[in-house]
Design goal:
The complex is a heterodimer.
Chain A lengths: L2 E5 L1 E2 L2 E2 L1 H13 L3 E6 L4 H5 L8 E5 L9 H14 L4 E5 L4 H12 L2 E6 L10 E6 L4 E7 L4 E5 L15 E3 L12 E7 L11 E5 L9 H10 L3 E4 L1 H5 L20 E5 L5 H7 L4 E6 L12 E4 L2 H14 L2
Parallel strand pairs in A: 1-4, 1-6, 4-5, 5-11, 6-10, 7-10, 13-14, 13-15, 15-16, 16-17
Antiparallel strand pairs in A: 2-3, 8-9
Chain B lengths: L1 E5 L2 E3 L7 E2 L4 E2 L6 E3 L1 H16 L4 E7 L5 H10 L3 E6 L5 H15 L3 E5 L10 H9 L3 E11 L2 E8 L2 E8 L2 E5 L11 H7 L4 E5 L7 E7 L8 E2 L5 H11 L4
Parallel strand pairs in B: 1-6, 1-8, 6-7, 7-13, 8-12, 9-12
Antiparallel strand pairs in B: 2-5, 3-4, 9-10, 10-11
Helix pairs in contact in B: 2-5, 3-4
The chains are: A alpha/beta, B alpha/beta.
Amino acid sequence: MSILVFVETAEGKVKKTSLEAVAFAHALGGPVTAIALGAAEADELGALGKYGAQKVLHANDAKLNAGITQAYTSVLIKALADEQADTLVLANSSLGTPVAARIAAKTGASLATNVVEVPKGTSPFVVKRSIYTGKAFSYLELTGAKKVIAIKKNAATVAEVGSAVAVTPYAVTLSDADFAVKITSSEKATGEVLLPEANIVVSGGRGMKGPEHWGILEELAKTLHAATGCSKPVSDMGWRPHHEHVGQTGVKVAPQLYIAVGISGAIQHLAGVNSSKVIVVINKDPEAPFFKAADYGIAGDAFDVLPKLTEALKAGR
Amino acid sequence: MKILVCITHVPDTTSKISFTDNQTKLDSTGVQFIIGPYDDYALARAIELKEANAGTTVTVLNVGPADTEPTLRKALAIGADDAVRVNADPKDSFFVATQIAEHAKSVGYDLILMGRESIDYNSGVVHGLVGELLGMPSVSPVMKLELAGTNAKLVCEIEGGKENVELTLPFVAGCQEPIAEWKIPNMRGIMSARTKPLQVVEAKAADSGVQLQKFELPPPKGAVKMISPDNVAELVNLLKNEAKVI
């Protein structure tokens, strides 16, 4: 099989799940070509060679700086044909997942999103998917000669397997139809650890008693280089923005470490965090249901425990 | 304006999930089925658009066997005008998208709404598949949708923020909160839903190139280790040396 990996970037840097997509493709075997669209740092792209890409293409067209599903679909379909690739691997994301869908519909490829690990073999080609919002898995055989696979965070282990490669410019022809959807402006957190990408997430719930108390939680997050999240009530009350809402109808996270502070642990919240490797729960109420889903728990007051925890972490450096 | 809202029939978010038939089928014993939460947002927004724009009709569609009809009736009670059930097991995203696209072609909708993803298979691809099959733009996840004639202004969520987006009808949108408040059917709605048209159509063949092998539950979680609030250094120690995550 010959594989194309669509690599997403944020502020010029390759997203972590996209690095995992390259590692995933490398683990499948067969030549791997990576492609990035829009502005990105050349060094960052060249470094993809270390993680398994034999070739790196860069469609550096200013029109592609914003992630427009239809335009990205057109470019990637052409790149699949040019590279004679039969398989596309990308990261599940607000952009990657819809792009995967449109490409599969256009090319007739077998499609699987939310894939959580590298298949054991390629014949039969069976992927493991996360379903029921993390409550179960399904094993799906992809029978088509063409495949489109969107991976969930932590689906593959990133390791250095080669050396950096030169980046090849990739020329694109774009039509007006590709830009039927116009992005007029965007608001994006910059310089922060993005929640879906984070290795550590610190989340607060109603137990934080108000947005004015988020400072101690942010201090802990900063010390751990973590992203901050919140429960649904907190985002509903406008204490925190919606893109920080972790749960069934919000962001599903899969960090190495999830620290929940003042969150009772409703099943809808657990659905957003059950792919975390280790869960720590800090809650005043020792009967909070979240403790049952936790690895480590502290039954204590957030306003007492958080500053002490931040201090202990700083002291341990 | 004609609006199509595609809804899923899925286990309630609090359901305990288990499987039968050699791990190939959901065990629906004791499971309460609902309109998918994201689809419910799409439906609520469609009803708001209908109320604000005279002459607008809202059709709801589900791909599923006969036992999903109460879910369609609930959507009619919330305010949809008519319902379509494509009589088939919704086995995969491409199959479902094909059924939606075939129906949409026969009617010609101005706007096709659905949830950003179903909460059973979580694929998040049906809006994109339908968009491509119909040659329409697709947008997801949409948090706000305003229409002025055929011009639409949307707010879409992206990782770590949001985008303001403009496009013109027709298009397909995958919706999520806070696009509208969920609507609860009232008695009048429930009564009128009984007599609203519910059309059953047979499915078209679709080769999706995917075959389910089996389902699996995650391994059970071990017991929680409790640490005294006066000994947070112990937590740091455990995270470093036992869990090895910091």
